[in-house]
Design a protein that fits this description.
- By secondary structure, the chain is α+β, with helices and mostly antiparallel strands.
- Helix content is 14%, strand content 28%.
- It contains 7 helices and 19 strands.
- The strands form 3 sheets. Strands 1, 2, 3, 4, 5, 6, 9, 10 and 13 form a 9-stranded mixed β-sheet that branches. It has an 8-stranded mixed β-sheet with strand order 12-11-15-14-16-17-18-19, sandwiched between helices. A two-stranded antiparallel ribbon has the order 7-8.
- The radius of gyration is 22 Å and the shape is elongated.
- The protein starts with 6 loop residues before the first strand and ends in a 16-residue tail after the last strand.
- This is Amidase domain-containing protein.
- It comes from Claviceps africana.
- InterPro entries: Amidase_dom, Arp1_N, AS_sf.
Length: 359
């Protein structure tokens, strides 16, 4: 696994990852090492509906906060020539260049150009003259995550990077980056999960990310080798518009019992000291404990399970003439965390690229 250097910053007391990909540049000349929180807006939003737009962003998006609204970047458009003074309230206005950025059309496997006019309005970080996405970093207070990840490119989800930063000094918890909910641009009919943040279990492969299965011996055997492909279910989630922000812990090989090599996830119910239970413990802990996470995919032993918006379904993996195990065993994590459970039909969830314990 190759570690990459990243830039982080603090905006209004919250920690942010400055995503490495450059999405555009501004016309103005500023110092190359300056870091500024900004909001990218359409000309109509900037000049006709500024305050309403910023209030809506603040209400809808947990990544945005009012400090992003102090410096505004205007996208190229019909009203781009209007005077910046018309904005008022002491806000600064900058302007995006009409440059294009290289992307790849995966459907036709050919290089194309994407205009900065396609950039979704919302919060961004200006590093020098370059515009980057702002990913807010949350503390993993439930110890639910095995790996916190972010995509190598935000406009072409193929390779993931592991975010490995020193634990937050105040809380001693690792940090999980999440993108703005405003970045999703596909229509709901094409991407019904647009902007929804998901996690997958540690046993499910993401290209560029190792698999540990909560086992030090497994990691030593495979030398933390990063996966060279992404599991079918994770690819399907991406196609539907979901954003995968990490891999959650399961007990060793999904047994539901062993927590020898990693810290067991916490159960947020009641006094916070309840038994987390089950094999997909990290998935249940994350969904129950974090309001910034929409859903998790979990694995319970040989039983792949899917947690969506706190509704958990499972798919039996049975040999010929084998009877399904007790329902309570499959739903143990869901019950312990106050989540609901449903069973889906066999073969409903693709398992290509997942390490499933035969036990």
């Amino acid at each position: 696994m190759t570690l990459k250097s990243v830039l982080t910053t603090v905006v209004a007391g919250s920690h942010y990852l400055i995503h490495p990909q450059v999405l555009g540049t501004i016309q103005e000349t500023i110092k190359p090492d300056v870091i500024i929180p900004v909001t990218v807006l359409e000309p109509d939003q900037l000049y006709n509906h500024l305050e309403d737009t910023l209030r809506l962003f603040d209400l809808y998006d947990d990544v945005f906060n009012p400090e992003f609204g102090s410096v505004l970047i205007e996208k190229p458009g019909a009203k781009a020539a209007e005077a910046a003074m018309s904005v008022g309230d002491g806000k600064s206005v900058m302007h995006l260049r009409k440059d294009t950025k290289d992307t790849k059309d995966t459907a036709t496997a050919r290089a194309t150009k994407s205009s900065v006019s396609d950039m979704p309005p919302g919060p961004y970080i200006l590093h020098g003259a370059n515009v980057h996405q702002a990913w807010r970093m949350y503390n993993d207070t439930m110890d639910a995550f095995a790996w916190a990840v972010y995509p190598d490119k935000v406009d072409e989800i193929d390779v993931f990077n592991v975010l490995q930063l020193p634990a937050d000094s105040a809380s001693n918890h690792t940090l999980v980056p999440v993108p703005s909910r405003l970045y999703g641009t596909l229509p709901p009919e094409k991407a019904p999960l647009r902007g929804f943040r998901f996690t997958v279990p540690d046993c499910m492969s993401l290209r560029g990310v190792p698999t540990s299965i909560s086992s030090a011996s497994w990691r030593h055997l495979h030398n933390d080798t990063a996966a060279d492909s992404t599991a079918a279910l994770a690819r399907r989630l991406d196609e539907l518009g979901a954003v995968i922000v990490g891999k959650t812990k399961s007990s060793q090989f999904g047994s539901g019992r062993e927590w020898k090599d990693v810290v067991a996830p916490k159960n947020p119910r009641e006094d916070g000291h309840q038994d987390a239970a089950g094999g997909s413990t990290g998935a249940g802990s994350a969904v129950a404990g974090y309001d910034w996470l929409k859903a998790s995919i979990g694995i319970h032993g040989a039983l792949p399970t899917e947690t969506i918006s706190g509704i958990r379904s499972c798919q039996w993996q049975l040999e010929p003439n084998q009877s399904p195990p007790a329902i309570g065993q499959a739903f143990e994590t869901a019950a312990a965390h106050g989540l609901f459970a449903l069973r889906t039909s066999p073969s409903r969830v693709p398992l290509d690229g997942a390490q499933i314990s035969p036990l």
